[in-house]
Fold each of these.
Amino acid sequence: MLILECPCCGVLADETELAPGGEAHLKRFGPGASDDEFEGYLFMRENPRGVHFERWRHVNGCGKWFHAARDTSTLEVFGTYPAQTTEPPRDIRDRISARRPGWTWREFA
Amino acid sequence: MSTRLAKGGRLLNRAKRVNFTFNGQHLTGLEGDTLASALLGAGQMMVGRSFKYHRPRGMVASGAEEPNALVNLGTGNRLEPNQRATTTELFEGLSATSQNHWPSLEFDVGAVNSWFSRFLPAGFYYKTFMYPRAFWKHVYEPFIRQSAGLGRAPEAHLRDEDTYEHFHAFVDVLVIGGGVAGLQAALTAGRAGAQVLLIEQTAHWGGRAPVDGGTVDGKPADAFVAAALAEMRGMKNVTLRTRCMGAGVYDHGYVLAYERVSDHAPGTPGPRHRLWRLRCRQVITATGAIERPLSFAGNDIPGVMLAGAVRDYAVNYGVSIGDRTIVVTNNDDAYRTAITLKELGLEVPAIIDARAGGGGALAEQARALGIRVETGKGVARVKGGKRVEGVAICAQAGEGAVLEEIKCDAVAMSGGWSPVVHLWSHCGGKLVWDEAQAMFRPNADAPPTGAAGEPFVIPAGSANGYLGLGDVLTDADAAGMAAAKAVGAKPKKTDAPKGETPEEAAIEPVWLMPQGAHVKLRMKAWLDFQNDVKVSDIQLAAREGFESVEHAKRYTTLGMATDQGKLSNINGLAILSDALGQPIPQTGTTTFRPPYTPISMGAIGGEARGKVFQPLRRTPLQDWHEAQGAHFEPVGHWRRPYCYPRAGETHAQAVAREITQTRGSLGLLDASTLGKLVVTGPDAGKFLDMLYTNMMSTLKPGRCRYGLMCSENGFLMDDGVVARIGDDSFLCHTTTGGAERIHAHMEEWLQTEWWDWQVYVANVTEQYGQIAVVGPDARKVLEKLGGMDVSKDALPFMAWADGELAGISCRVYRISFSGELSYEIAVDAGQARALWDKLLEAGMEFNVMPYGTEALHVMRAEKGFIMIGDETDGTVIPQDLGLDWAISKKKDDFIGKRAQQRSHMTDPARWKLVGLETVDGSVLPDGAYAVADGDNANGQRNVQGRVTSTYHSPTLGRGIAMGLVLNGPDRMGTVIDFPGTDGKTYRATIVDPVFYDKDGEKQNV
Amino acid sequence: MSEAVSALNGQSFVGIVKIEEAGPQGMITLRGDAGAAALQKAARDVAGVDMPGIRGIAAAGDRAIAWMSPDEWLILLPHAQAHEGVATLRTALAGTHHLAENVSDARALFRVTGEPARLREVLAKLAPADLHPDRFGTGEMRRTRLAQVPAAIWLDSAGEARVICFRSVASYVFDLLSVAAAPGSEVGFFDA
């Protein structure tokens, strides 16, 4: 069972305080988008063994959404960061590079 | 016969006798006994029958690894099956019965299976119960169920009278195991200032060391244990717990510990078990080692026991297993048992050592005591049935030709010791095969890793493969040091205490005795005592192609019993490796899964039983509803009144009365459960335009609008009335079950997509009690209460106003879900009961009645209003429900808009909402499907629609329904068929879904 | 107005600690920009204390401000003054983006009193939070869950904890706390 530090309130939150929110950094496609774009947005998800970025909400806590970067295989957490960003912050990516040289995830590396 | 010795028993209080019963027989033990030691002390060696062949079985171990001595413990509300006698502390009045036999333990009919054992090989069930297929359900399954299971489940009507609880704690260092290794590791970490929790599964500290002998810094192990405990009891940063087992080690330092608070003293106030849900920065597994049996023919006969267990019973409990004990071994440790027994004045006719070279210093000591030592020998077979009578000795190197038979009544066997690596392995710690010691031990290079990728489990002592006292203490000290450092403490470098034991000769692995045992012997050489798996079964599995250890396990059931193979796994996989001609590490182990030993369901449930099984949400009027004897229905975690039956009334009659009264005059509904979300900020209108399918930003302050909310996938997820409170502020009503979900939905979009929009949301659902005042006399009753203008001009349909009624501040919404003149009045929750009482009082002249959710449902269906969860099921879009009028054509975007443009969503063949009227006025079955001509590819009838809501309408005096039907709106007047599950076919005409007051005149007066 | 009725009318239970529903309590949810001087001033004017920092609760007498999230605070004040407090905040903050709502009746407040170690134990049976005295003390507001419902807890003093939950589950939370405080259920973990 995971324990993640909520970057919004600083609490080391037990997984039972959190609600999972699936893959992070999705770009929304609305009216005007092609079928392929919309399908990709709504249904196509990464399912890596290794580095992954996901959304969590500190639902039994401060109520805020945040992002977590972790290894789905070892469950190592590379960091958590606020949800108000469209891509993983530099420091998180650097930390992952230090631990998992050569990693890639979607368009990020 | 096993018996109680005149003296000895370091854990006993000989002054205190304890009475208990076994299979109804009254027996006496001593304070400090386990149930197992008390039974043995009373001469009861045989305690059960094996699972498959019903062979007589006695205790084989003295601790958590015991596979045989499982009993039904307690009676009535405290009956619990499959309790291990070896870990059950004796208490006055304990009542136990043996398991898996009929009619009695001594004479068991099922033992006939044993005679046919050659016809019951591994995979017997898989091979036998295959054909014919028709037999599966009615012949084979009942047969298998009949023969399955060990203990007896408590009667269904009984309720566990004990309580259980959880406890959450965060610690720096958790040390699992209170033997000398655990004590030393905890002491070292504690001295360094780390916050330490040390847990021990038994009631006693010190583990095996006080039994095994040896010295620590020149003193007996007992003295070391006492000193370590005394020092730690003085440390504020160290907590000690006995009767607390490390059950499982999980990700990110999560550990479950199972504390048996009052199993040894039933009825004591407080919980029986406590499940510790721990978060640990470092975990030290000082879980010791478990002795392995030797695989020789007849190794399951009562009286054959692990050598360490024989020693435990003698030293700890003053119990001898027999007068003449033969010791069989492949290592030096078992010599301790022989020496112990001899020194207690008991006979040890021989030590059979499979090693050609024999043992070291302990062997010398045994010989000096006059014990005969045979080296290079093995046991060909044990003689006896319900009790050991003797052993036949052979050359270990041979096939089992008998050299000599020696009479004895007990056999103490030792195949070496296996580190308890379970907790190390639970969370991914890897193992390495130690050839010299013939054991799997933790691989220090592949430990379980925690949240930061750091190692977080450290094995210590025997659990780390160190069997000698000196090595154990050194290793444990290092473990404590490493854990302390890992949590940021600064341990001072000191020398570990010095443990000393006699020099030992190396173990020689013996996986089969004798090594070339012929098949008749292998068929009687047990690996898994509880599940009756023998050497020959594993060999058969290998021949039949079950080469993976996980496959062989499942095929033979090796290690799948309640002891999870604590005794059998290593021996089994060694046999498998041999059969496959590959080294042991290549075969590997099966997966170690938590819990270490079974934990109670009660502990897992914790406090969640009875009235706190789950939260029940209560409205401010709940007390009143209960006092009225309302019949409740669950809606989410709420319990809403379904109807308020009067004396002698059926629920259907009550519902009909409530509807007739409301439509005719005046009814009241507790609508407090409806979600209420305040959405405020400069971008609130823009935000709601994205959330709802219709336009909310154009709503005028003071007005209300019904809105639909869809998921990004286009499906309808919630509906409700939105009121514009001010320029920047809205109040959104949600469905009863939707408040938290929709609040979360709003927060999600605001926080993760449109975080630059200036909008705040607050869930104020429970701030308000909300009462719907409904019916033609609704206005009159509010006017009686007085305080604000509720006339049509001042407060028209779909408007709201703040004011006061009967002196209570309120907000009144002119909205209607029944089609009648209706006001929904929101007041502070603490005022709701006062307003309700005033409405009841003022409404008396109108014969006012409360109505429940069923009346609400029927009235909305009469009006053709949809209900989320009835007309919708997560696959329905608003267009299916004829709600196109509530979908804005002007907006560029809203959540779900793009999804609704997909071809499947715009397919004209989507089923559409219609009304359904049965031809004969009866009520359509809920969920019934309308059939069409022909069959589909699976040979099932084609369908053309389904019922989504169906009721008897007291207003219309007939059954009415809504449903989704293929081309329904274009087929008004068509009659379609709905076969029921009752064998009848219901015929219904497709009609307009609005059955009552089609023009909406009644709600708009 | 009639006299305000709290969810459980002051119900109480005595086990290894005492559990009491605290009766009507004024509460205001305030949301806004934490850095805005106007917001800080408005909150201080209503609550009589400075806005606390992250996870803090600042109290003086019968008033307090608790940090709930980076843009949300809970102002505690006498129940009868909650409506007026909301009006004051809205007036003071007119023209700035904020939210002020009276949530006094949406919640229930419990007082848990007794030996300091016992009190932490009772809460730790229900909440997956680190309540060790070294890491949770007075002045901190911990939002977490109690068994199956969200709750917020803080210590007024070593011997007195407060628990806030939603009103609809007041009865559940009272029963939970009572079960956790059952006689004989002392744990002893925080005593060391």
Amino acid sequence: MKKLDLIKLPFNKQNPITVQVLGVCSCLAVTAQLKPAVVMALSVTVVVALANLIISLLRKTIPPRIRIIVQLVVVSMLVVLVDQVLKAYMYDVSKQLSVFVGLIITNCIVMGRLEAFAMSNPPLPSLLDGIGNGLGYSVVLVTLGFVRELLGSGTLWGYPVMEKIGLFKIGYENNGLMIMPPMALILVGIIIWIHRTRNKDLQEQ
Amino acid sequence: MNKFSNRYIFIYSAVLVAVVAVVLTVVSMSLQPLQERNRQAETKQMILKTIGVEATRDNADELYGEYVTEEELGDGSRYYTFEGGCIIPLQGNGLWGPIWGYLAMDETKTIVGAVFDHKGETPGLGGEIASDKFASRFVGKSWLKPIVLKKNADKNSQYEVDAISGGTMTSNGVTAMLAKAHEKYGMLAVAASSTDKTAERKEAEK
């Protein structure tokens, strides 16, 4: 596999959310607004990339019997670091993400990539694979955050877009369902639908 | 070295855990001052919010100095005054962890503003106490008696507020927190009042 593919594939045919169906839980929880979605996406990308790199560097020394524990310790350390940095430099966002930052530890994408890739590949490809999968996750998260905040609250990144272009005056109303988690699931479903329609080889028989 | 041997596994995990512990300690220690400053600014923002002043974290310090004065009770516990009334701190326990808040009242002990926050209540259920919608239910109520959170609260009552649906345990925590604060700061509000104290104390006891 070419190195560039490691970054490119997760965007499309190996997307962690729409194809591997990993990390769906957090993608429903944090996408009611764009800003937490972007921060969550970046945090997960950093954690997956660094966890992949560290585990790949350690892979020849890790005792196979406790490999899952070793992976979890490394991931937990990275997540605590991310949490501490957010608390120091982006306090509001860290409050909004609250429990979800801790849940990065259990995000299936992280463990999935460690087991499937980093344990058996050299550091550089592992780092790229982590970045790729993190960004693939980010694309879906940001798309959801964009649609849900725009249609649900009429704002983007807190800026009142719908009000500024005057839609409320002609009788437009925000869709309250958009900010509920079930709508995120429906939107993910729609994304998967579009994705599979365009890529026939992803369809199961 | 045999990666399956017990000795290897023990040594490996011990070293790994020690390294992780050192990294975490160093980072946590070095970021602590920044985090502490954020927490203090947030407290000031909350206090300002009860008297209707919206502050950002950057100007909270300045506005706080302008509007709020810190005072102390005899036993050293802190409360705050602003022009026309006082603000009392609330502290209690919700379902999963600590909850806290501030109540601002004018001289007749009518509540002019409230704000609540929590550490880890369930978002959408108990976590709703942090919402403006919940806090606004307190405005206009009276602090002569502790306010109680109830299902189907009597709208005309000065001492009842609608509880949160799906957040009964957290609501009970808020009620307990208010009762505790009233015990501690109730007389303070009486003392700050300009009307007849004894009459109001009787009212409070009813």
